[in-house]
Amino acid sequence: MILPLIFGLTAPLISEFVCELAGVIDDVGKEVQLFKPGDRVLGMNVKTFGAYAEYKCLSEESPLAVIPDTLTFEEAVAVCDGGATALTFLRDKAKS
C-alpha cells in the first residue's frame, strides 16, 4: 500500500533509479568555490536520482569530488558508493 505512494500510483514517479554519476562540469554559479567549468567529477544524486540525464544541476554541497587525471570515468564511478558517502560525512564534520 505504501509503495504506490512512493513509486507512483499509475505511472512511475522516477523513470530510472540511477544515482551514481560522472561527467564534466559545464557551468557553475558565481558563489561556487569547490568546482569550476571543465572539472571532471564523480558523485551521487540520491535525492532526485536521474543520473543518466545529459545534464544535472547539483548544489556544491552534493557528494561530488574531482576525478584525478589518472582515473577514467568508469574507474571513478566504481568507487562512488563508499567514497561519496564518506565525503558527505567528512564535509559535514569539517563544518562543525
What layout of secondary structure does this protein have?
Layout: H1 2-7, E1 20-24, E2 40-44, E3 64-66, H2 73-78, H3 80-95
Antiparallel strand pairs: 1-2, 2-3
Organism: Paenibacillus woosongensis
Pfam families: ADH_N
Keywords: NADP
Task: Tell me the span between the first and last alpha carbons.
Answer: 40 Å
- Biggest beta-sheet profile: 3 strands, antiparallel
The CATH topology is given as Quinone Oxidoreductase, Chain A, domain 1
**CATH superfamily annotation:** Medium-chain alcohol dehydrogenases, catalytic domain
Regions with pLDDT < 50 over 5+ consecutive residues?
Answer: none
Mean pLDDT: 78
Radius of gyration: 15 Å
Structural class of the helices, strands and pairings?
Answer: alpha+beta
Q: Number of helical runs?
A: 3
What is the architecture at the second tier of CATH?
Alpha-Beta Complex
Order of helices and strands: HEEEHH
Neighbour order of strands in the largest sheet: 1-2-3
Indicate how many domains the architecture comprises: 1
The counted number of beta strands is 3
Q: Which geometry do the CA atoms define?
A: globular
Proportion of beta-strand residues: 5-15%
Residues in helix, % = 25-40%
Please write the CATH class name: Alpha Beta
Protein name: Alcohol dehydrogenase-like N-terminal domain-containing protein
Pfam families: ADH_N (PF08240)
InterPro entries: ADH-like_N, GroES-like_sf, Zinc-ADH_QOR/CCCR
Keywords: NADP
